[in-house]
Amino acid sequence: MSIWYLAFFTGFFGSVHCLGMCGPLAFAVPSRHSGWWMVLFDKLSYQFGRIISYSLLGILIGFVGQQLWMSGLQQFVSVVSGLLILVAGASRILKFRTSIGTENGIGIFNRAFTYALKHKANHLITGMLNGLLPCGFVYLALAGAVTVGSPVGAMNYMALFGLGTLPLMLVATFGFGMVGPIFRRKINQAVPYLMVCLGLWFILRGASLDLPYLSPKVAPQTEVCN
């Protein structure tokens, strides 16, 4: 599987999780227009605000990945990322708690988001704030982006992840409510198993076992990919 397809479908299949976690925030941002086309524009602006923030996070994590690739640690990065994703997925399946210290970050986010709503910030700005919300699924995407090996590549990875979340989030926030709570619960139950599969894939990818698609042989790096 191409890593670009992986980025998009991680966002697409994880968007039900995003709807449960970030949906209430999106619903809390009112549109001050009456025409449906302007309401749709507002909701699109909100979603693209999230994607912009994801892309900016991708650039930052891409600089980290670039340095690691230049040090010849690309396979190590892939294996470590896979292990982190695997532990995160297993923790949800086995019901044990892992702490990544997001409480302070959530507090800062809540204050910023409340301030933006109070001062009637536009949908693009509030969407960008939403994209910075500490979120385990975004961390999952960033763990994949760091393995790409360049800021531009990591930015593209995170943008594709964000685009994957767009269809369901847009439909839900536009008011159709097509996804019921029972379906959301079932998808959320399946998400940890998806995380385990992704973790195993990253580990195999880093292992360089010369298995087509699953674990291709990695040639020695002479320059950073774009």
TrEMBL record:
Q: State whether keyword Transmembrane helix applies.
A: yes
Q: Which InterPro entries match?
A: UreH-like_TM_dom
Enumerate the spans annotated as Urease accessory protein UreH-like transmembrane domain. 7-201
Keywords assigned: Membrane, Transmembrane, Transmembrane helix
Q: Which residues form a coiled coil?
A: none
Q: Where are the transmembrane segments?
A: 6-30, 51-70, 76-94, 124-146, 158-183, 190-208
Note the Pfam families from the entry.
Answer: DsbD_2 (PF13386)
Q: Does the keyword Transmembrane apply?
A: yes
**Name listed for the protein in its UniProt record:** Urease accessory protein UreH-like transmembrane domain-containing protein
